[in-house]
Amino acid sequence: MTLVVQKFGGTSVANLDRIRHVAGRVARHVRAGERVCVVVSAMAGTTNRLVEWVTGIEPVHYDRAEYDTVVASGEQVTVGLLAIALQRLGVPARSFLGWQAGIRTDGAHGKARIVEIDPAPLRACLEAGVVPVVAGFQGLGPDGRVTTLGRGGSDTSAVAVAAALGADRCDIFTDVDGVYTSDPRVVPKARKLERITYEEMLEMASLGAKVLQTRSVALAMRYRVRLQVLSSFEDVPGTLVVDEDEIMESQIVSGVTYSRDEAKVSVLRVEDRPGIAAALFGPLADAHINVDMIVQSVSRDGRHANITFTVSRADLPRTVEILERIRGEVGFERVAADPDVVKVSVVGVGMRSHAGVAHRMFRTLAERGINIQAISTSEIKISVLIAEEYAELALRALHAAYGLDRA
Amino acid sequence: MTLVVQKFGGTSVANLDRIRHVAGRVARHVRAGERVCVVVSAMAGTTNRLVEWVTGIEPVHYDRAEYDTVVASGEQVTVGLLAIALQRLGVPARSFLGWQAGIRTDGAHGKARIVEIDPAPLRACLEAGVVPVVAGFQGLGPDGRVTTLGRGGSDTSAVAVAAALGADRCDIFTDVDGVYTSDPRVVPKARKLERITYEEMLEMASLGAKVLQTRSVALAMRYRVRLQVLSSFEDVPGTLVVDEDEIMESQIVSGVTYSRDEAKVSVLRVEDRPGIAAALFGPLADAHINVDMIVQSVSRDGRHANITFTVSRADLPRTVEILERIRGEVGFERVAADPDVVKVSVVGVGMRSHAGVAHRMFRTLAERGINIQAISTSEIKISVLIAEEYAELALRALHAAYGLDRA
Lengths: 407, 407
Known about the structure:
Chain A is α/β, with parallel strands linked by helices.
């Protein structure tokens, strides 16, 4: 008997009508002979309202454990309502809060990580022919208090539950119907992918495709949980995220993505001496600022260098401030900041065995007169930094160049 | 060091401003050197909204355990927010949900009774100098699931926590500032009582004075918890509910109350034979209809009787329906129903040692031309049923007759 974990996000359970609709979907699977374990988020908007109440009382230095207690109440409402909606359709169901489902986390309140899941309570429920409806996003900390996993944590809950139960598949129902070769709002010829590998999905999630949370994909990859992304509103097949060997013939490139959350920082005329990178990037790391693409160019005199890198846009002001503070000590002429950049990436496991992928990217952009400001690569990804105004043009040109356009 | 349990109801924590205000009150007590354990309800309106969601999905036959899971989320929000508000004022505090506070109930979901409270978690918290903020109205059932105590259950939670901790006092903060000799909206000369006995409070609560829930008073009496009813908005002393021996000189009558939730039913010309009362009241009891005052009068022929009794107004249509159904079988002429009646009661432990209390009541009403339709008494209470139009007149006249008017 197939065992499926089905996860429904906040927009899928935003009101009573949608909760009834979700119950109907689950009921169809149960009647088709599948065993189903459901994981749900809070009603859309609820978590934001609860967070606003917390910060309304204490804007910054609120107790994270109390924050978790307040915020976790959102999922408590939806699990109970969905269980009742299922029962009304004649499907036996019962709700499980994080602490009842055996979901143990570490003590990092507000962004806890799942340490282990005792599968016994959910397994006993399934074996009794009852659909467990599990509160996503929450667990029990080592202090016996409620924890939450941070934003988007419900995806992670679902994958972790699927792994603990040894489920055949974990279905993530969301407001899009799958993973596309590119953002369909920008690239009208983007196609829905039938399958994608964990590695590609991981790159695409971390590059800004907001279908799945990076954390949940990494967890799925680690425990080899077959993930499916599909629409909670339309009844059409979604995209399967699977192991590479489940995909017969990989495309060289599976997707073209972009991220606007980039800002370029150039440190000009740095003295070129050993230890200079550590002197620059150490203070940024201390301030929890994540540095991404790094390019170093040596000046004509051979004694100075320009160092260019990217940070997220939100971190740009703090980055400039920190660099100005250490200017005298490190020794450089000035800092230049440019928030109007975008990172465009091509992703595909097929790259590993194909040469010329990077070359095609650079040529395609050059033909459109688009200047590349920085490059970074991994085994299955090439990213370039370009001026933001070229974002749409670059995306559409690359999508066509790699043969991804819809027939 | 004095240990006080302070309970704040839904209107006292209805929004962030009021939660801050409650935190301020608790903080003052803590700074005055008292140890405080707080019990709170959900924000006013929240529980109703949650119940509406449940019944919006399944109007009647909803799973009580799921109902409890949904509804208990309301208190979860307020305990977290109040703990944060206290911390902001420099008062160490932490929230406890029912299952974290060791509040064990029976398995009667939706109207559970507290079976026992393990005082260890709250005691450890208090001993660490931290104010526990406990979710009222909820506990942990024998099935490991969340239970709720039914409407007004937060008062009961507070009293039970006070008993378990051996607290010196249990303060119930509400939207009135104490217990009055009568309803001040009807009797302008009503006075606030400084003290009242458990027995009197119990009678007054069950007679319609909505200050405290009957259940919580009974629990306080059983465990000798000193209760105080006081306003959460004004900083004035309230009314202490205490043991009789803590009141030096009891008034003969402490209060005059009334209940409009009464309806009179007369069963006319019943055959007067043994077992007739059982034949009439058995079917009503089976339908969970509570019968209160009962008067039986024998007709002139000596072979028939009229039986008059009261039920709550909501039960009147069902009562008449049931009686009509058994008319032939039991043997009576007809049923007469009158919803326009009111029950007026005088309550006082001093009655036990004073004669003439009933006589004064009857004389006072007779002087105003008010007809008494039924009478019932207990050791410390006399109730009469009168036509509703005389309610205010009767209340004011009795209040004056027993010397309760404000000087």
